[in-house]
Amino acid sequence: MLGEFEYLLITAAAGLGDKAYGAAIRAEIETTTGRRCSIGALYTTIDRLETKGLLKTWMSDATPQRGGRAKRMVRVTAKGVQAAKDFYDAVTRVSRGASWAVDRTRRAS
Amino acid sequence: MTSTSWPLVEVATRLLEPDEREAVLGDLLEAGEGGWSGLLGVLGLVVRRQLQLFRSWRPWAASFGLTLPGSLLLMGFSVTIASNCERLAHHKILIEPLGGIDEASISLFCRGLLLIGGSWVCGYVVGSVSRKTLWMSIVSCCFPCLFCLVRFREPSLSKFCLFLFLLPAVWGVHHALRLTRINLSLAILLAIAITTLTLLPTNSRGVWFLNWSLVWPAWYLVAMARQEGWKK
Fold first, then answer.
1. Does the interface ipTM go beyond 0.95?
2. B31 touches chain A (CB under 8 A)
3. Are B131 and B197 within one domain?
4. Based on CB atoms within 10 Å of each CB, which residue in A33, A62, B13, B158 is the most buried?
5. Is the dihedral of CA B171, B174, B176, B180 positive or negative?
6. pLDDT digits (tens, 9 = 90+) for B63-90
7. Cβ contacts (< 8 Å) between B13 and chain A: which residues?
8. Same domain (yes/no): B227, B132
9. Domain ranges, residue A52
10. What's this model's pTM, rounded to 2 decimal places?
11. Residue B113 in contact with partner chain A when CB distance is under 8 A
């Protein structure tokens, strides 16, 4: 099963779609969680997920916006989508009956 | 990114793979990250990458299985050869100036060849096995070198005699880092030559026994060359 940060990364990359690359994923994680995401954690996790076959990465062409530096583009594979879905299902199942989850459900309804 | 810290960040990213360096520098520029936090981020990534490398057996085998014992052995071997060379030169000049090539000269020549060949092979194997963690092998070589340098007490010999093995060893590492492929037939020839030279009898039995540890890197080189041949 995925780890928490792995799940966040896959979800952020999936949400960004064709615009998923290092800096964008990092900004997305920092904005949504309110936590700092280090470059070291980001790139080592991307590598690990790619080794597991959950992500595919490639280098894009250089763009002038980034001082002529290329981006490392990221795409979530079908296996990655399945792994994220399994993680989400497990978290949802295990949270059933938890006070914070019940409160949230009531507020939503 | 402040102008003072940016060069430091650029230097730190040189420790990364070229593609990763490109992506990381671009990300830092795009995020407009503060200089020191950018530097810390890059150093964090470098440390994580190094730690990942040390999860493999390769850097440990290269450092503690070959470089550390190999350096000690080759230093002892270097001193033995230098000492024999000095004794022989003294004998040739003062006692028997017109004497021909005797058994001692041939034996010394063979030991010299074994030192050069063995050091080169050890350097090549260390360079091939732990390309990205070579710094650890260098540290593993420096410790015994400094230890022996401090304790070296042989008035007739220069302290540099300890390091006769270094030049061929560095040459071997250089070849490995330049990804120079070793031809299988050349590797076999080298391994047979080193094994044969090790079999030759010598006056100092202890050293002769330890010389066998120079043989396995030579045959490992053969295995590597064979594997490369299969990959083609």
1. no
2. yes
3. yes
4. B13
5. negative
6. 998 999 899 989 988 998 898 888 888 7
7. none
8. yes
9. 4-108
10. 0.74
11. no
Q: Angle, nearest 10°, between helix axes B35-53 and A39-51? A: 40
Identify which of A29, A50, A31, A49 has the alpha carbon closest to the alpha carbon of residue A39.
A29
- Residue pair B127/B179 in contact (Cβ under 8 Å)? The answer is no
Q: Mind listing the pLDDT tens digit for each residue in B3-60? A: 677 888 889 999 899 999 999 999 998 888 877 888 999 999 999 999 989 999 999 9
pLDDT band at B160 (very low <50, low <70, confident <90, very high): confident
Q: What is the percent of chain B with per-residue pLDDT over 90, rounded to a whole number? A: 39
Give the dihedral sign, CA B11/B54/B123/B160.
positive
B45 lies within 8 A of chain A by CB: yes
Q: Do B40 and B69 sit in the same domain of this protein?
A: no
Determine which helix (DSSP H) or strand (DSSP E) holds B122, and give its type and residue range: helix B103-129
In a domain, B1, yes or no: no
Residue B98: predicted pLDDT: 58
Cβ separation A26–B31 shorter than 8 A: yes
Structure tokens at A33: 């969680």
**Which residues of chain B have a CB within 8 Å of the CB of A65?**
30
Q: CB of B46 within 8 A of CB of B76?
A: no
- Which residues, 6+ apart, have CB-to-CB distance to B197 below 8 Å? B110, B111, B113, B114, B117
Three-state SS for B49-91 is: HHHHHCCCCHHHHHHHHHHHHHHHHHHHHHHHHHHHHHHHHHH
Q: What is the pLDDT of residues B134-145, one digit of tens each?
A: 999 999 999 999
Q: Which residues of chain A are modeled with pLDDT < 70?
A: 103-109
Q: Are B185 and B229 in contact (CB under 8 A)?
A: no
Residue from A58, A69, A74 to probe the interface with B (highest B Cβ count within 10 Å): A69
Q: Which domain holds residue B148?
A: 58-231
Rounded-to-integer distance, Cα B225 and Cα B122, Å: 15
Nearest CA in chain A to B37: A38
